[in-house]
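Journal club prep — side note

Before the paper discussion, L.F. wants everyone to see what a predicted structure for a comparable chain looks like in C-alpha cell form. Sequence:
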Amino acid sequence: MSLVLPNSAILVLGSLAAEGPMTPKTIIEKVGLAPRTISFALRTLVREQVIKKIPNFADMRQPIYHIDMKRVKELQLRFDSGQISQFPSSFRPSGHSFNR
C-alpha cells in the first residue's frame, strides 16, 4: 500500500513542521491557499495519520492540528531502511508518494 500526498498536503505539512501546531485559519494565512484546498489537505493528512486534530478549548470552531511525530518517524524509518523505494510505481507528478 502506498501513501500519496497531494502538493497542498505537503505544503500544509511543511508549514506545521516549521511553525508548530496551528488552526485551519492560521494555516490558510501561512500557506496562502484557498480554504477548501486546506480543508482537503488536512483531511488527507488526518486520514493518513500524519497529523492529529485536537480540540481547541479557546475556540471550539477552530481545532488545532499538529504533526504526529510517531507516525512521521515510522515513515522516515521505513524510507531510511530501504523498505520504501525512492520512486515507487505509484508515484505521480501531482503529489508525493511513500509506501506503507
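L.F.'s comment for the group: The helical segments are 7-19, 24-31, 35-47, 69-80. Keep this in mind when we get to the figures.
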